[in-house]
Amino acid sequence: MGDKKASNDPSQSGHKTGDHFCDSKAGELIISHSSADAAAQELVTEIKEGKIEHMKYLNGMDEWLKHWDSNMPEITEYKLHLVGVPYGQESWKMNYLQFLYKQTLIGHLQSGKASLEFAGALARPDLHFIAQPNHLLKLVGAAAGAAPAQQPARKSEPVVKAGNFRFSKYHQQYRSMLNVPGRSDTALAPAYYREVGDSVPVTIAVLDTGVAADFTPNREEFNLTDPERSGQATDEQGHGTIMCKIISDVALFARIRVFKVWNEGAAVEWDALAGVLLASKTPSIINVSLRFGLQDVTCSECGRKSNLSRALTYSHATRSTVFENVIRLVVDAGSIVVAAAGNENRNELAYPARFNHAVAISSVNSRLKRSSFSNYGTTNSDGQPHENRFALPGGETEPPAEPIGSFGTDTRNMAGTSHAAAYATGVVAHFWQRARTEERNPMGLIAAMRMATESPDKKATKFSGYNAAEHGHGIPRL
Question: What's the burial of 343, exposed, middle or buried (CB within 10 Å: 0-12/13-18/19+)?
Fold first, then answer.
């Protein structure tokens, strides 16, 4: 299995963020395998012991999750590992790992000692051994482009203040469009919702840029980008604060857990995976305003194009099998993942919204027409019809513009499919709170959303301009 020690040269372990390799974090790979895969376990042990040349074991997901939550249970189905490799050799090392794994697997199969669990894992493609880049993800932020950082008046002041944000008149229109109860509405009385067992509140996890320190509703913070400030998810950009403001205004009763995964222009997949898994410790609604593919150019290394014979809009790092498997894992465990469709005005959903188990949210304006920037589409990651598509208000950037709010007088960057996904997250929280215990699962909640888009005669609502590709099942109303 190789007898050379792994390099201890810091430049070889790769901890810098770069865009040279398929929009991945330079010098880092993610390994995923079934918990029952003895061959993969042996290979990972070889890496940990420094027996594979120029590979350095950096972290295991189970250990990493316990850093943030000491009571976090181990992942039972998968094992995830972070490995450092020389900068610029990521592709070669991925292929090398696959070669080593096949050698090890053959040895285990020939020994005749493979367990039934191991054999079962080999029969499931989603449990196969994977070595992939530690991708960088782009924030599905505002439709007009990357939002400028909010500048503090004095250096001692926080960059973003929730108190400086004000909703626009369009936000109130959107609330009415969705039939969101008012703050003093009797519909918010306990009788409006079914009793919730032991009164555990609806929990919403927001994977984003963090949240402003003065955001007052009940919340918990995790800064996955900086372990030394693990409990301070300070928002230095503003997007995460806006998402939390929308969600909390639509679902007043919800408990919000904020996971800061975006920093210095990108989110690292390893951090995003940790956020999704931490959020799913108890069944939750997980809001994701991220997409794969950091650059809007063809990859300079492999030159790959999309299947539409054009330069790949999201670069070629549009999909991560590991991320898809983790979403399936948490959805199977009872969480629901709400993801923004993307802001490129393309007839294709961005990943992870395009994954089978995610709820994909496109954006409409106050006229119920698809927002000019919103991605749309009918197919999922397998090329089959995506059954979990909806449209919700997310603003408009073309005249007449519909900003959702503003920081002071700044109304830029206040519309996007991420905003629509925030409204959707709040709406899902209402369905969750209303549902019977046995219906509080992704299948039951999505079914309730579909029913809420239908007229009394159970035929899809055909409002003016309705289009199945652009609106999915429609606009769910409370």
Answer: buried
Write the pLDDT tens digit of every residue in 319-372: 899 999 999 999 999 999 999 999 999 999 999 999 999 999 999 999 999 999
Which residue type sits at 408?
G
C-beta separation of 28 from 82 below 8 A = yes
Name which of 58, 70, 20, 93 is nearest 271 in CA terms: 58
Residues ≥6 apart with Cβ < 8 Å to 259: 205, 206, 207, 208, 222, 224, 233, 275, 278, 279
* 186 DSSP assignment: G
Amino acid in position 183: R
Encoded tokens for 208: 């984003």
Handedness of CA 346, 351, 357, 360 (dihedral sign): negative
- Domains of the chain, by residue range, sit at 10-128, 139-471
How many other β-carbons are positioned within 10 Å of the β-carbon of residue 368?
A: 17
CB atoms within 10 A of CB 442: 22
Among 290, 282, 241, residue whose Cα is nearest residue 265: 290
CA dihedral sign, ordered 451, 455, 456, 457 = negative
Reported as a pLDDT band with limits 50, 70 and 90, residue 7 is very low
CATH topology of domain 139-471: Rossmann fold (3.40.50)
Concatenated DSSP letters for 14-38? --SB-SSSSSEEEEEEEEEEETT-H
Q: Can you tell me the distance from the alpha carbon of 284 to that of 70, in angstroms, rounded to the nearest whole number? A: 19
Dihedral sign for Cα atoms in the order 292, 294, 300, 301: negative
Which residue(s) pair with 167 in the sheet? 405
Gyration radius (Cα) of the chain, Å: 23
Which structure tokens are listed for 109? 């199969």
Measured CA to CA, the distance from residue 274 to residue 65 in angstroms comes to: 7
Q: Which residues of 123-132 are buried (b: 16+ CB within 10 A; e: fewer)?
A: eeeebbbbbb
H or E segment to which residue 176 belongs: helix 169-177
Q: Read off the pLDDT of residues 414-432 as tens digits, 9 standing for 90 and up.
A: 999 999 999 999 999 999 9
3-class DSSP state for residue 317? coil
Give CA–CA dist 55/85, Å, rounded.
Answer: 5
